[in-house]
Amino acid sequence: MSVFVLYLFLTKKFFLCIIKKFCEKIRIYWKKVEVLNMLVILIRTIVLYTLVLLVMRGMGKREIGQLQPFELVISIMIADLASIPMSDIGVPIFNGIIPILGLLIMHLMISLGNLKSIKFRQAICGKPSILIFRGKIDEEVLIKERYTINELQERLRGKDVFNIGDVEYAILETSGEINVILKPEKRNPTLEDMELSAKYEGITYDLVIDGVIQYDNLNKLNKDYTWLEDEVSKFGFEPEDALIVTIDGNNNIFCLYSATCIPVSLFFISRISCI
């Protein structure tokens, strides 16, 4: 009897040991699977992020507030299509890539149609609406565009217009932005109104950004590194030590020194000759 009990005890212990080892192997296996799944999700995220970034770049340079309706719809659909294969590894990644590329092609075709046909452009993007015409609010247009007086006043305040009576024209663009033309007596006087002339300012060029020489801008100015080094050395350091160096149309050079230990010094010299 004791032998039989010992046999059962050893057998039970043996099976428990086997089960324990089996569970341990399963746990290690699932850990490897989880790590592998996380790695797959990471790779998918990188691929889809790069693709979406390239697609958005291919759609053109527009701010979010300036998107046309069809562009907004495409942007939302692209984000949705990218999120599904990114988070669910059971969905083939090409199920997201192919529709995204299809939306890009569709966007390019619609954009081409907008460029070639005015009627097509109006059908897709709509037409601007005049909310205020010659100082009078067009209530029919407000109702058509589902605009309330309070919303109109809010948008006007965003344009620094706090008295609706100062507005001669208010135009609701197809992007949803409102452009305002004030009445002549409410506009700021210009130099032309005061019969004055303005000095030419030109454009400001970045010559150095974060210590990196902007050779493209130097070439536009017909200058080279030697000239830049001579000008920056007047501030007491080298171009590579500058946080930023710019030059405007009147040959004014702005220079900001960058250092990790020394406090940032600000220098400005007016009318430094570019010769």
Features:
single chain, 275 residues, alpha+beta, CRO Repressor, 3 domains, five-stranded antiparallel beta sheet, four-stranded antiparallel beta sheet, 8 helices, 50% helix, flat, disordered N terminus, disordered C terminus
Describe this structure in words.
It is a single chain. The chain is of the alpha+beta class and 275 residues long. The protein has eight helices and nine strands. The strands form two sheets. It has a five-stranded antiparallel β-sheet. It has a four-stranded antiparallel β-sheet with strand order 2-1-3-4. Helix 1 packs antiparallel against helix 2 (69-87) and helix 3 crosses helix 4 (118-125). The model is unreliable at 3-9 and 260-275 (pLDDT under 50).
Reconstruct the topology from this structure.
Blueprint: H1 2-58, H2 69-87, H3 94-116, H4 118-125, E1 129-133, E2 136-137, H5 139-144, H6 149-157, E3 167-172, E4 178-182, E5 205-209, E6 212-213, H7 215-220, H8 225-233, E7 242-247, E8 253-257, E9 266-269
Antiparallel strand pairs: 1-2, 1-3, 3-4, 5-6, 5-7, 7-8, 8-9
Order of helices and strands: HHHHEEHHEEEEHHEEE
Which secondary-structure class do the elements indicate? Answer: alpha+beta
Radius of gyration: 33 Å
Question: What low-confidence regions span 5 or more consecutive residues with pLDDT below 50?
Answer: 3-9, 260-275
Short description:
The chain is α+β, with helices and mostly antiparallel strands and 275 residues long. The chain is built from 8 helices and 9 strands. The protein has a 5-stranded antiparallel β-sheet.
